[in-house]
Automatic annotation (TrEMBL):
The keyword Ribonucleoprotein does not apply. It comes from the Bacteria. This is DNA helicase related protein. It holds the Pfam family MTES_1575.
């Protein structure tokens, strides 16, 4: 993406307005100019707030032998926990969303329940949701389900779509068409041909004809 703008991020003074759109524009221009270095002190403070259940789950997954990253992303839609694909360190096998600070900071229910997950899935993420109450009730079960989800992600990522197509054995059975000569069909049933007879009938006039009609017929 290339951004053309007559403004720079440092030219936007947020002290003069409280509009969220202006703040978003400033952050966008700052990110376009500096990349990930544009993450502000506020966002770093937000990441520190998110330590609790996220870090506990991440440590448990690390104990199982997986490489784990936390608080992935620079936007408001961060992934709380990401399990790294060891075959390709630039990919994540699974993204885990918790109901911690990132979840609570979403402005609307639609943002946190629908939009965030839909956007992440469109970006290629395999998403798994962990709820605090489930963790408190039975954290061992949650960890086992996470490991199962990681294994399923490994299997799905290890098989390309082209391989799936090649594995399908498709057989086509061609139908053989045999040509036969056309036989003349003779109808044995007796039938009577239909004939239309035209019978001429005389025209009889009743009463006196109008003068116009008699004039046209030469009888005047």
């Amino acid at each position: 993406m290339k951004v053309f703008s007559t403004l720079r991020a440092d030219q936007i003074d947020l002290s003069r307005t409280s509009a969220e759109g202006v703040a978003g524009l400033k952050s966008f221009l700052e990110y376009a100019e500096k990349g990930k270095k544009a993450v502000s002190i506020v966002s770093l403070h937000d990441q520190l707030k998110n330590k609790s259940l996220t870090d506990i789950i991440a440590n448990k997954i690390r104990e199982c032998g997986y490489e784990v990253h936390t608080n992935i992303g620079c936007s408001g839609y961060r992934v709380d926990i990401g399990i790294v694909n060891t075959d390709n360190k630039s990919e994540y096998l699974l993204g885990i969303l918790c109901d911690g600070y990132n979840y609570k900071s979403a402005k609307t229910v639609r943002d946190r329940e629908i939009i965030q997950q839909d956007i992440l899935r469109l970006l290629g993420w395999n998403i798994y949701r962990v709820w605090t109450m489930d963790w408190i009730d039975n954290h061992e079960k949650v960890i086992s389900e996470i490991i199962r989800a990681i294994n399923q992600a490994q299997m799905s990522m290890g098989k390309k779509p082209n391989d799936e197509i090649n594995d399908l054995e498709i057989s086509f059975q061609e139908k053989q068409i045999t040509e036969k000569p056309v036989e003349q069909v003779i109808i044995q049933k007796d039938y009577v041909s239909y004939k239309v007879d035209y019978v001429s009938a005389p025209i009889h006039f009743c009463g006196v004809l109008p003068d116009e009609f008699t004039h046209l017929n030469g009888r005047n």
